[in-house]
Amino acid sequence: MLGSAGHCGDCKRRRPDVISPRPGPAPGALQCRAVTARKPAPPAPALTVGIEFALNLLSGLRRRGIDGSELLREAGIPVEAQHQPGARIATLQLAQLLRALIERHDDEVLGMLSRPSKRGSFALQVRAGIAAPTLEQAIRHIAHVFRLLHDDLSLVLVHEGQELAGVALDFHQAEAASNPHLHELVLRVYWRLFAWLVGGQLPVVRFDFAYARPAYSEGYGPIFPAPWRFEAARSAMWFQAERLQLPVCRDEQALRAFLADVPVQVILPRRDAGASGRVRSHLQRTQPLWPDLERTAQALHLSPSTLQRRLAAEGSSFQAIKDQLRREVAIYRLHTSDTPLAKLAVELGFSDTAAFQRAFKHWTGLPPGGYRQGR
Questions:
Q1: For the chain, which has fewer Cβ within 10 Å, the N-terminal or C-terminal residue?
Q2: 335 and 356 share one domain
Q3: Cβ atoms within 10 Å, residue 225
Q4: Cβ atoms of 327 and 86 closer than 8 Å
Q5: pTM (2 decimals)?
Q6: Average pLDDT of 221-243?
């Protein structure tokens, strides 16, 4: 499915259109200048996800009786963390695990389908996409190549009324359909691919999942940043139908940059927007001062009450953002440095080392020393 180059209630829907290639638009259709490649900026380190997402990537190996502990270690993920519900890992570690899986087993679908997909298969789909003039045509081209490569699953263009369009997963094999981790992987990867094709942004209105809500669903936020509907008829991503006419804005140079490290491009969550993103950015810039709500609001030219109200409207709070950022910085620093715990506690704004250790164990299920030893 992918690899690096060189290595809400029932809805009434129209009958889904099975995707097949179509000719390009008529002369005069919406066009855009190609977005040329820029060297991807280094991903910000302070981002984490639940350990469950790492274990889910290994589900194909487990079904074949293969132990993934060595791959976890290769990605810098403590093996003990897989037995700690609520444990957190850096998103870069998740991307490293995905990269290691593909390189070790030469299978871009990670053992989740009835036959492997050799490295380079995803690149074929991306190339089909950049040859299209619009997002709709890109989806059709990519889905056509996808169907040629995979027997168990198809991508289907669907509509919900006149306002929404989406891409749904159409399974042809029961075992594949019963694996929720495959649904997660396909939706995440192809949403980020479609967004990249049109310049990086493709806001999703809703994600549908054709399985029961998992116990770790609270961790879906960074991976699937839109409302979710579980136990849906089909897993799908939904966006405004008018976005189908967005022009594809990528060229060969941009393609090479994208394919240079697909795991990072498709796995790492995007930064928060809105008030939450502004607060997070301010706290990051001012480390290790960790300003309080009043000082942060002043820096953002807002009153504390206005800032609190805007954060609440986004389902967040100042303290939640601050705690999340401290947790993510702690994980990153423990993974990448030998900074003494006492110094790290001060940098994170804790009163003493013991307070930091208690907080870290609450966040991840592991003490900071144990996490560092397992990296």
A1: C
A2: yes
A3: 15
A4: no
A5: 0.67
A6: 93
